[in-house]
Design brief:
single chain; 0% helix; mainly beta; Neuraminidase; 132 residues; 5-stranded antiparallel β-sheet
């Protein structure tokens, strides 16, 4: 399970259902809203980060070993997008943001090293292998 807050009184939580689909539930207006399926077939637990009010991105490793993401733009969820990689699907990725339009995601590769990819405000920068 993963959770994030992008504003006062708001929590969004995510988990993987029995069939691998990503489930999302929001706490808003003082109560938990109805859970929704965001689809996909995740092999890992999800990771989520928010980079602004009403803006968030969720990540997961699929059975193909690639990192996939979906993002909420304040109005709607965008379709799943592959960010590639050769990742260990048994390990959950980790995501964070240091400010508007900057996202960082880290994941363990099948080579047992940590890989990093980031959104620089205009594009996803290619994977870099971090030193041990």
């Amino acid at each position: 399970m993963a959770a994030v807050s992008w504003g006062p009184g708001r929590i969004d939580r995510f988990w993987v259902d029995f069939d691998g689909a990503l489930i999302h539930e929001a706490f808003a207006d003082g109560r938990w809203q109805t859970a929704e399926s965001l689809g996909g077939t995740l092999a890992s637990a999800p990771a989520v980060t928010a980079w602004a009010v009403d803006q968030m991105e969720v990540f997961g490793v699929m059975p193909d070993g690639e990192l996939w993401n979906r993002y909420w733009d304040g109005t709607s969820w965008h379709a799943w997008e592959s960010l590639g990689g050769d990742l260990d699907a048994a390990e959950a990725p980790v995501a964070t943001s240091w400010g508007p339009d900057r996202l960082d995601v880290f994941a363990l590769g099948r080579d047992e090293t940590t890989w990093h990819r980031w959104w620089d405000g205009t594009r996803w920068v290619e994977w870099e292998q971090l030193p041990r």
